[in-house]
Structures are given as C-alpha cells and as structure tokens.
Automatic annotation (TrEMBL):
UniProt cross-references to Pfam families, sorted A to Z: BPD_transp_1
Keyword Ribosomal protein: no
Subcellular location: Cell membrane
Name of the protein in question: Phosphate transport system permease protein PstA
Family, similarity comment: Belongs to the binding-protein-dependent transport system permease family. CysTW subfamily.
Membrane-spanning ranges: 54-79, 91-115, 121-140, 172-193, 238-260
Transmembrane listed as a keyword: yes
Keyword annotations of the record: Cell membrane, Membrane, Phosphate transport, Transmembrane, Transmembrane helix, Transport
Entry membrane topology: Multi-pass membrane protein
GO BP annotation list: phosphate ion transmembrane transport
Molecular-function GO term, any one: phosphate transmembrane transporter activity
C-alpha cells in the first residue's frame, strides 16, 4: 500500500512538474530587467517587456483587495460573533459557499453589467470589482475559521473586566486572528492573480502604461491570452515570460500563506 500511495503521488506530480519545467525553460531565458521596465513591442520587433501588464495586475489586485477584504472581515465577524446560530448567519454562509463555486466568467459578467455598462468604459476599477467577487468568499471562510479558533474564555475574560462587545472584538479578538486575516488575503490574491476571463470583460487590455483607474489596463493573464495565440515569435516569447512571472508571483503568495498558517494564536 505504501508503494501504491507513493506511486500515485508521483503520477499526480508529473503534470505539475512538466508544466513548471516547460514554463521555466521557455520563459526563463527572457526574464531580465527589461521585462519589468519596457512596454510590449510591436510585432516582429525583438526585445521589449511587459511593464504595463505587471503593474496592471498589481493595481487590479489592489483594487480587488480594497473591496473584498473589509467586506470579508466584517461578514465573518457578523456570522461568528453576532449572528451565530441565527437563520441570517446560515443564509450568509450558504451564499458564501455558492459564491465560492461561481465560475470566474460569471464574476466578469457581473462586473461588466455593474461597472462597465454604467461608466461606459472598460477600466482597472471594473477589473478589481470582478476580482473582488472571487476574493470575498475566500476571505470570509478563512477569517471565520480564525474566529472560531479563539477560545470563548478569552471573550468572557474581556467582558469580565468591563469591556463591551465592540472593545472585545476590536482589541482582543481581531488582533488574535490577524494571522488568519493575512492568510485569507494571501489566498484570495493567489486565486485572483491568475484569472483571465473576468478581466476580458472588465479591464480589457492596453498596449500602453497605466493611464488611470477608469481606463483600460493590461494584466499578465490577458497578455498571456493575447500573445499566446499571436503568430509573432516575440509576442509568444513574452507570453511564456508572463506565464513564468505569474507562477512566481503565485508561488511567493502561497509561501507567505503557508508561513502565516504555521503561526499559532494560542
């Protein structure tokens, strides 16, 4: 049985290792400083970079975090601290579970209808809204688990010395679950960093640098989608480099998440 389990594990690792090796081999040769300082070149022109897509990805992730993190934390606090055992909390949890299983393209269509059609323009804000829809359930569920891990005696001790509910949550509970909050943020960022479908409907793409939050913006995932099907070799090379960069970005976020989950609150 040990040999069978080890064999199945190795078989499961074959696709992962093959993908990583392929991306590193084809994209590692072009990974240099110019990639992060120059714009994508025209067809048939060698060199260039993906500065706009790299910073566009960071901007859309930042907007998505600013929208999803406060909503996720406050929702988790309600379901665990105030609404525990109520029908409203059960409905919120059910909706969270449903939202976590919604295809990413649906989130893109939602943001398209809410932001793009309202403003009349594709934009980084619309892309951030689409990503926030995908990030919210991850933040909620992670913070909920953190709040549940705090012993009830801690809350009672705080109330026993004269603190009210707001003071107990803000000064005792929230500081204790900060590792879980940080973990929820990093996991949601790792999920959103590689999404393409929502950004096709919202942020679209731009060959130029960042012109403002209400203008179309390039992102790594959409750059990969556009350049991977391009007939020009230089753009195909950039697609491989972008794939490598986004893998390294997700790997960094995942390592940070693993580090934070190893920290114990009590």
């Amino acid at each position: 049985m040990t040999a069978l389990v080890v064999g199945c594990t190795l078989i499961a690792l074959i696709p992962l290792v093959a993908i990583l090796l392929n991306v590193f081999i084809k994209g590692g040769g072009r990974l240099d400083v110019d990639i992060f300082t120059e714009l994508p070149p025209p067809p048939l022109v060698k060199g260039g970079g993906m500065r706009n897509a790299f910073f566009g990805t960071l901007i859309t992730l930042l907007i998505g975090s600013l929208l999803s993190v406060p909503i996720g934390i406050l929702t988790a606090i309600y379901t665990v601290e105030f609404g525990r055992g109520t029908k409203a909390a059960g409905i919120v949890r059910f909706c969270t579970n449903v939202l976590s299983g919604v295809p990413s393209i649906i989130a893109g269509l939602f943001a398209y209808g809410i932001v793009v059609l309202t403003t009349g323009n594709f934009s980084a804000v619309a892309g951030g809204v689409a990503l926030s829809v995908l990030m919210v359930p991850i933040v909620i569920r992670t913070v909920e688990e953190g709040l549940k891990s705090i012993p009830r005696e801690i809350r009672l001790a705080s109330i026993g010395v004269g603190a009210n509910d707001f003071q107990t949550i803000s000064r005792v509970v929230i500081p204790a679950v900060m590792p879980f909050i940080a973990t929820g943020i990093t996991l949601s960022l790792a999920r959103a960093a590689g999404e393409t479908a929502p950004l096709l409907f919202t942020a679209l793409f731009s060959q130029f640098g960042f012109n403002g939050p209400w203008e179309p913006v390039a992102t790594l995932s959409v750059l990969i989608y556009n350049f991977a099907i391009s007939p020009y070799q230089n753009q195909q090379e950039l697609a491989w480099v972008a794939s490598l960069v986004i893998i390294l970005l997700i790997l960094f976020i995942s390592i940070m998440s693993r580090y934070l989950t190893r920290r114990k609150v009590f």
